[in-house]
Specification:
Layout: H1 2-34, E1 54-64, E2 67-74, E3 83-84, E4 89-93, E5 109-115, E6 118-121
Parallel strand pairs: 4-6
Antiparallel strand pairs: 1-2, 1-5, 2-3, 2-4, 5-6
């Protein structure tokens, strides 16, 4: 009896893996036909042991257009002001127009990400 139960569980697992593969193939086929313009999902792929490269930063000043000078901060205990660390770097605010001068005030705290060779954040004004 145990061998039969164990075998049936393996078959169910194999069937569910097959269903997952079919669902994935159908989704890829749909994206191929329709394009990705209608999707509203965002995902990040990382390898085991990897981490998302994001930092909390404080906006120091506007450099030009939607590019800002920022500096990383460490968030300490609740009720304390975050401590600035490291050197200033430049980051792009994706929430602002690329052709107009940025309006984000100095002293704003944002989460900054590294995308390719650029640092970016999204902070509506």
């Amino acid at each position: 009896m145990y061998e039969f139960e164990n075998r049936s569980k393996k078959e169910v697992k194999a069937m569910s893996n097959g269903a997952d593969i079919v669902n994935s193939q159908e989704m890829l086929a749909r994206l191929y036909r329709q394009g990705s313009q209608e999707t509203s999902e965002t995902s990040v792929v990382t390898s085991p042991g990897a981490r998302a490269a994001a930092w909390t930063v404080k906006v120091k000043s506007n450099s030009s257009y939607n590019v800002y000078n920022v500096r990383a901060v460490v968030i300490d205990e609740p009720g304390t002001i975050p401590s600035e660390i490291g050197q200033e770097m430049q980051a792009v605010n994706l929430a602002e127009d690329f052709l107009e001068e940025g309006q984000l005030p100095a002293g704003t705290y944002v989460a900054m990400f590294r995308v390719g060779e650029k640092y970016v954040f999204y902070a509506p004004v």
